[in-house]
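Subject: design request, 77 residues
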């Protein structure tokens, strides 16, 4: 579980947006695209506090993704 008040890790992306499945891998929250598909389908990933079931969901700057108690925030470089 995440520590209350713990800040999510900022993960810099090079474009204006990134798909959720790609971001999970980039942030190091999962190991592979296959893992992304299953954890998203199982309802184990939240975006901005809400469960997200779409692997292709477009994330933008400041969106926060949480999986397995660890969070990552979309940041721009």
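Subject: RE: design request

Done. Sequence follows.
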């Amino acid at each position: 579980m995440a520590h209350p008040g713990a800040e999510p890790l900022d993960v810099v992306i090079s474009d204006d947006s990134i798909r959720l499945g790609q971001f999970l891998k980039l942030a190091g929250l999962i190991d592979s695209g296959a893992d992304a598909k299953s954890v998203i389908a199982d309802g184990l990933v939240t975006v901005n506090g809400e469960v997200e079931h779409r692997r292709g969901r477009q994330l933008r700057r400041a969106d926060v993704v949480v999986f397995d108690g660890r969070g990552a925030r979309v940041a721009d470089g």
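The beta strands are 9-13, 17-19, 45-47, 50-51, 58-60, 64-67, 70-76.
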